[in-house]
Amino acid sequence: MDLKLGSTLSVVRSTRVVIGDQVSPAVIIIKDGKIHQILSSSSYSETDECQVLDVGNSVVMPGIVDSHVHVNEPGRTTWEGFWTATKAAAAGGVTTIVDMPLNSIPPTTTLSNFHEKLREATGKCFVDTAFWGGVIPGNEYELRPMIQAGVAGFKCFLIHSGVDEFPHVVDCDLHAAMKQLQGTGSVLLFHAEREVVETTKESADPTHYSTFLQSRPDVMEVEAIRAVIELCLQYQVRCHIVHLSSAEPLKLILEARLAGAPLTVETTHHYLSLSAEDIPAGATQFKCCPPIRGSNNKEQLWNALKAGHIDMVVSDHSPCTPDLKKLNSGDFSEAWGGISSLQFGLPLFWSSACQRGFQLSDVVRLLSHNTAQLCDLANRKGQLTPGYDADLVIWDPEREFQIEEELIHHKNKLTPYLGLTLRGCVCATVLRGRVVYSGGHFYPQPLGKHLLLPQRMNQVQL
Predict the structure, then answer these.
(1) Which of 10, 124, 365, 410 sits 20 to 30 Å CA-CA off 305?
(2) What is the signed CA dihedral for 22, 28, 34, 36, rounded to 10 degrees?
(3) If you average pLDDT over residues 412-436, what whole number do you get?
């Protein structure tokens, strides 16, 4: 497969192209960075002026839209930055990321801070990038100006966020924010954990994973989601539960949707790939919040995905410098909670999903289409349709590879997946018709654009 970096593709042919629910031989014709036409192989006649890229049996599907990525720039660029994060994305077949509002300094909680974020990201993105804003106490009058400026929506925490500059909200803040968001078509994302009665014994060993797991029980997610549902039903503002780790609240979520709540939910690659029982003592690279739970819970999450009760799967890429993981002490209570997986989401998902009867069309639905829908990009990203951006990932679902440090393109290489053998190898990534990644190499010039979403503002007088 000869995919020259930076080249502009006009025709791509494969025996396995994922279009909607179907996988079939097809030819994708690209013009001006958009998908112009999709033809069956038999109905396409080659012309001299169009060079056909034939990728044989490799799968061609829409680029992945990862709607949950902590880039941390500006302010914490030793943790991650746009240059390294978006390179890792491109290497993983991710053509669009949506940057989270926290862990950068300043956080994306005001119009001015959003403009600063955009300046910092300029000229550094190897894939297209959209941006979440944040809801914190007292910033409700910043929300509509940020919507007008093009944020994809907003995120809030119902518990300490881990960083002091992004404080969590209480009920009065949520009501104030919801009033501002009504009628805008925007969405509010919730880190859905709430403080409940302390359950951990003070004497428990902080290097044992079970100690950390007991400190963040399922009931914290259940109670938080109960509160979110009430707000969602009351205000009819789109609400979204980020990184669901517990299967226990799924019944509540289902009932809320049946009652008319515009509510969606995601889970992450780590909750679907990892189990609490397998985490060694002191292995703080496995710490994230909410925590990785038991294998029985993991299987319930997979069942919910299959039933359509969980809408999408994202990375929640949340890196930090190695010292913050406290590997020397192995103290889970002190370590930063976050897992790096932006580059490996597709093979992580496929390695488990293919064994559970998931199809390639499910990969597109859960990793591309539904995530694009969440952040109002579903009119241009997340499916192979004429008029859409020609964002493609070309990959081999049968090929296996091992995650080694030299393969990792995000800034800090610490990840619980080191040494893991996965199935599904990304061969090339195409962004708006241009080859940005191929065979382990990148086009040196960042070709990503900022995706700002002003079109919704027709819906409400601001």
Answers:
(1) 410
(2) -100
(3) 97
